[in-house]
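Same chain as my last thread, 275 residues:
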Amino acid sequence: MLKKLFTRATLIRTLSSILLVIVALVTLIAGGNLLFATMLAVSLIGQYELYRVISMQKSFLGFSGYLATAGYYLLLFLDLHGYSMPLILAFLIVLMAVYVFSFPRYKAGEICHVYFGFFYVSVMISYVYQIRELTNGVFLVFLIFLSSWICDTCAYLVGVMAGKHKLAPKLSPNKSIEGSIGGIVGAVLLGALYGGVFCENLAGAFRDPSVGCAIVCGLGAVISQIGDLAASGIKRNYEKKDYGHLIPGHGGIMDRFDSVIFVAPAIYFLIQYIK
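reply #2:
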């Protein structure tokens, strides 16, 4: 079992993870324009990677998706959140207009893919920035990564050491039920510990920070695994192993942020309700 944990691939993956954690800490703590620029870059790169899987990364429709992302983030930067939903709807209408007036140049599936890429990547992951902008957001935003990256790490370690029963063999053969449970438990425990350590800073968000963070991280961990498997499903549909090669040992931005994409908006709204 220990040999499995100290392979070259595992070492590369671990070192990349450490570097990612450092970058995440710097940008999340700094917040503001640095985090905004980072999330915009992550969104555009992730969107490009997804469009590349479906061979639309350099098409006219693909560029329209990048433009929609830029417009959406501009609204966030100007604190015009009330206009974000009209823009999301307007982009769909524009895409349908292109589809209608250029028919039969584009297929309905291509229109759906481009819109999906914009919403799935850019809109959903933007909630990392939106949580950071909340009151005490510098402490709340780390719940996203406790729910996703910590869950992923714990699930990987438990899975390597004790995984026997496959979780979703057709989507991700290496993931196990034991690893999944280990990931959720790890996220809950670290969430409770995080809430206890920063209880004074999180008191405005939760009546009991330890319990609140444990609940949020537990639910977030479940959602993160769905997001991870969903991203794997897209790759399998198009017979791709990874979305890219930007991050050694992990693949592309989408391979590393696939769970964060789902967790960020979920935690944003969980905070509102649990509060």
